[in-house]
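User: Earlier you gave me the apo prediction for this protein. Now I'd like the version with zinc ion bound, so I can compare the two side by side. Same sequence as before, with the ligand SMILES added.
Assistant: Got it. Here's the input I'm using:
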Amino acid sequence: MRKEQTNTGSKWVTGLMSLIYPSTCLSCCSPLYNHESYLCKECYSHLALTGYENLADNPVAQLFWGRVPLEFAASLFFYRKGETLQQLIKIMKYRGEPEAGIYLGQIAGRLLSRSSLFARPDYIMPVPLHPAKERKRGYNQCEKIAEGMSPLINAPVDTTLLFRRINNSSQTTKSRYERWENVDTIFGLNQPEEYQGSHILLIDDVITTGSTIEACCHALLAIPDLKISVVSIAYSH
Ligand SMILES: [Zn+2]
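And here is the structure of the complex with zinc ion:
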């Protein structure tokens, strides 16, 4: 009886491990080596790098010109429909695989650590989800990206300062003007006085118009002498 229980237990663990660490490449289905996760070396090399982390006035940095002052802004990959990166992001956001976020964060951390333009921040801050949305998903995917990145850029993840007051879905029923009007109220701050003069790295999964990041910055810029950098995994334009 005892042995059976152990067998069932180990089968369950193996099953769970194969869910967390798929043993075949997400893109081409070839078997993965032990040190690989999600993508084989070949498919990884086909991801569409932007190189923006090595380009000061890159298109993502320019997206925020005249909107919010940033130290550094970059997306690491182009987001294109039907490509492998989109699959990875979907798995991370909608199929309950936070490990895909850790994986993407590790890739991002490696790229940033090689950039001479990127300065180590004091805190890595994932864009917060509304608490109701985070409960439903079970995790915040941007927090998982930040966790993957953290040891590679040698900075801690902070999820205490910034919080989200307004859920995105409730935004869709409002007029364009109302949405614009409450950009200042979407995010709020907890105990901001502790962060005066620090350098914060905001993390998002995909940047499209930059409006979410802009709303985060509107809240954060209430803190005196704050420096903000922005990194996203993907840029959709
Ligand atoms: Zn592959």
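For your comparison, keep in mind: The radius of gyration is 19 Å.
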